[in-house]
């Protein structure tokens, strides 16, 4: 997490699944004066936001269906997707890319890029993301930011014994 934060000077956050939700268990602040705020211990829906969705997208389809049928799909901002068909499209795209990007889905004027952390069994153990003000994610930064998030999550996954 520290290497990721240092590489791009954005806040990094670690999330794990807790039942039908995601819980933020660690956050490292960047040194920039303007940053996105996330409280450690915060709970969020698995279907919204890059860090929770990076976990959700890599769960078995049956578990995703079970969660989607059980939870209330809440529209936190105008960008929160609550249509189940659209959520499935985003999940499939996240699986294809290996990461996900959100724009103001849980909080206005923020972006996040998240990717899954995979354990030695091949199951998703959590996710790592960067988060910041929406105006800092642009054509000049997106490729670097995605590459650094993927580098970090692959390194953590390998440290956990994942060999895929």
From TrEMBL:
Gene Ontology biological process terms in this record: negative regulation of DNA-templated transcription
InterPro entries xref list: GAF-like_dom_sf, HTH_MetabolicPath_Reg, Tscrpt_reg_IclR_C
Q: Name one Pfam family in it.
A: IclR_C
Molecular function GO labels: DNA binding; DNA-binding transcription factor activity
SUPFAM superfamilies in alphabetical order: GAF domain-like
Per the database record, which ranges form the IclR-ED domain?
1-162
Q: PANTHER family, per this entry?
A: HELIX-TURN-HELIX TRANSCRIPTIONAL REGULATOR, ICLR FAMILY, HTH-TYPE TRANSCRIPTIONAL REPRESSOR ALLR
Q: State the protein's name.
A: HTH-type transcriptional regulator KipR
Q: What is the lineage of its organism?
A: unclassified sequences, metagenomes, ecological metagenomes
- Please state the gene responsible for encoding this protein: kipR_11
């Amino acid at each position: 997490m520290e290497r990721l934060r240092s590489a791009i000077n954005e806040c990094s956050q670690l999330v794990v699944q807790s039942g039908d939700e995601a819980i933020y268990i660690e956050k490292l602040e960047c040194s920039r004066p303007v940053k996105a705020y996330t409280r450690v211990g915060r709970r969020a829906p698995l279907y919204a936001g890059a860090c929770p969705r990076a976990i959700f997208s890599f769960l078995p389809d049956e578990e995703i269906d079970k969660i989607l049928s059980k939870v209330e799909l809440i529209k936190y901002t105008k960008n929160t997707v609550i249509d189940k068909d659209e959520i499935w499209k985003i999940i499939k795209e996240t699986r294809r890319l290996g990461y996900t990007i959100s724009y103001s889905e849980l909080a206005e004027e923020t972006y996040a890029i998240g990717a899954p952390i995979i354990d030695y069994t091949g199951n998703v153990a959590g996710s790592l993301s960067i988060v910041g003000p929406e105006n800092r994610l642009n054509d000049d930064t997106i490729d670097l930011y995605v590459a650094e998030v993927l580098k970090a999550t692959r390194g953590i996954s390998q440290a956990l014994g994942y060999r895929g």
